[in-house]
Amino acid sequence: PRPSEPPPSAPAAAPVAAIVATSPLIPTWHPSVTLALAIDTGVLPSTSPGLELDGSLQRGELRFILLGTWFASRDTVGAGRVGGTFQLALGAGLACYGPRWGRWTALGCAGAELGRLAGTGLDVSRPDTGTVLWGAIRADGGATVAVGANTAIMLRAAVVRPLDRPEFVLDQSQVVYRPSSAALRLTAGFELEL
Q1: What pTM does this model have?
Q2: Contact (CB, 8 A) for 68 and 82
């Protein structure tokens, strides 16, 4: 008799490849606030310092900024030693492109601002105050540099183009002041990411 042959062995199981679904990292919105010092040249009669408060949201390379700025009053005196005291307060909205390189974030922004430009007679018998709605478009460029885990120093410069250049007059005829056709803003501040 012939010895019985062992039963054929089962074929080896093919290796199983695991498929894992992954999703790309979706950037989230990062809010921040900035307290800054600002300087304006061109809207008021002389260079004026101011205070600015910014709130921003950044997602990837896109950043939106809402800001409010108050500038100290400035005087101008014309013929006859009479003139006016002028003050500007404004709010603005900016849309920015902000790519990051290590600790640095570049900023290229465009937007618009609305505010209140006021002038009060100076060295006149009845000093009235005239106010106008200030409106302008602006282009900003600048950068932030991180100095901590959630803090940065912000530097920004803006060219501002008014939508209207109101004239402030005394006695309905004597022009006391009119803003320039373009203004320059410089801003430096401390940014805190929330």
Answers
A1: 0.81
A2: no
Residue 9: strand, helix, or coil: coil
- pLDDT for the residue numbered 13: 59
CA 94 to each of CA 22, 41, 97, 112: distance values in angstroms, whole numbers, following the listed order: 35, 20, 10, 7
How many residues would you count in the chain?
A: 194
- Map residue 81 onto helix, strand or coil: helix
CA atoms within 13 Å, Cβ hemisphere of 64: 5
In whole angstroms, what is the distance from residue 182 CA to residue 132 CA?
17
Residue the block writes with tokens 């009845």: 126
Judge contact between 194 and 151, C-beta under 8 A. no
Q: What tokens does 37 get?
A: 């010092």
Distances (CA, A) of 19 to 12, 22, 25, 82: 21, 10, 19, 82
Euclidean distance between CA atoms 52 and 74, whole angstroms: 18
Cα–Cα distances in Å, from 84 out to 43, 73, 152, 162, 183? 14, 10, 39, 20, 20
- pLDDT tens readout for residues 88-119: 999 999 999 999 999 999 999 999 999 999 99
- Residue pair 114/135 in contact (Cβ under 8 Å)? The answer is yes
Residue 13 per-residue DSSP state: P
